[in-house]
Amino acid sequence: MQRIRRALAELRSGEPLFLSDERDPSLILAVETLNANRLEMLKAFTEKPLRLLVTAHRARSLGYATEGDGPVALSLADTPNIEALAGLCCAGTAKNQIAPIAHLHLMDTAAIALARRARLLPCLISASIAPQYTAIVAQQVIDGELLSVPRPLLQQINAQTTEKPERISEARVPLSESEEARFVLYREPDGLGEHVAVIVGNPNEWPDAPAVRLHSACLTGDLFGSLRCDCGEQLRRGVAGIAAAGGGVLLYLDQEGRGIGLANKLRAYALQDSGYDTIDADAELGFGDDERQYEGTAAILQDLGIKQLTLFTNNPAKINALEAAGISVKGREAVLGELNHHNARYLNAKSDRAGHLLDEILIEDQPSR
């Protein structure tokens, strides 16, 4: 895990990674953090065309017919510039096949998973290391100039981990919706994510199936009251509802933009302004319709002594995820925001395409889609 933590930090800061594999040793860089010097460095170590690794979602957006959800490698026959690479990884590129499909290496799937976990655009440039340069690369690894990630380690990136979020600190924080509240902070094993369990009421007086809401962080809605979503209203109504139900927990989860991160969420917003709905905008950037995972969430609930609960949610997928993780969901309560002409299209897409239970507010006499 320590090597993976370092790899995430290196990738986010624009440093190359050496993917150590006997068959296909290569260097990778995140296109999002690419600069001219790093691109030239990659070119200097290879005699083959550079490859661009994208997700199946992004490949389909570019006009490629793909099967399955695995990544796609594109061969960059010409010497690419940074602007052209950015265009291939983000919106705005013409929808046609602009590069031939290249051979997929064994480590490509895990490399894309690493970029996702780093909350970068899931788009990497890869250079196969020519045999005459392997000794130079090995020396850079020894000198600490380059981080080596061996294939067995990288391929564990998507494996279930036994490490759980760690309880770090806590304090009493009275809220307007519930004066008896306590915040408990948990940190993810990779050090990147931090979640807050908002303890509402006295746990000794909770019902047998306390009220719980899994609330994904939304800076724009929760803090600034954005009208593009209903998150801020759901947050406050969620806390108030938990208090009215006799107490429980609101888990404030570091899952901005359904798990794609704030930078990518803002990119998706820009796409929505040009006509995409929330699902298609994420796909255009290379993401699935929901990138969130809930294993750590279940571990936090178990650490708090919660084995069964009443879930405050409009999303059946959250019920399924908790049940799969061994948490018994005894009931569901809706948590609804307000419909307006800014968020109507977004809420309709969540209802129609993601299965969210929003019929109570998506009524005919409200703003159209």
TrEMBL record:
A single GO cellular-component term on record: cytosol
* Catalytic activity, as annotated: GTP + 4 H2O = 2,5-diamino-6-hydroxy-4-(5-phosphoribosylamino)-pyrimidine + formate + 2 phosphate + 3 H(+)
What CDD domains does the annotation carry? GTP_cyclohydro2
Its Enzyme Commission number(s) read 3.5.4.25
- Write out the residues that bind GTP: 213-217, 234, 256-258, 278, 313, 318
What is one Gene Ontology biological process annotated in the Swiss-Prot or TrEMBL record?
riboflavin biosynthetic process
Q: Which cofactor does it need?
A: Zn(2+)
Q: What EC class is this?
A: hydrolase
Question: A Pfam family matched by this chain, by name?
Answer: GTP_cyclohydro2
- Asked if the keyword Lipid metabolism belongs to this entry, the reply reads no
What keywords are assigned to this protein? GTP-binding, Hydrolase, Metal-binding, Nucleotide-binding, Riboflavin biosynthesis, Zinc
Q: How is the cofactor bound?
A: Binds 1 zinc ion per subunit.
Question: What residues bind Zn(2+), as annotated?
Answer: 218, 229, 231
Pathway recorded for this protein: Cofactor biosynthesis; riboflavin biosynthesis; 5-amino-6-(D-ribitylamino)uracil from GTP: step 1/4
Name the protein family. Answer: Belongs to the GTP cyclohydrolase II family. In the N-terminal section; belongs to the DHBP synthase family.
Name of the protein in its database record: GTP cyclohydrolase-2
Gene designation: ribA
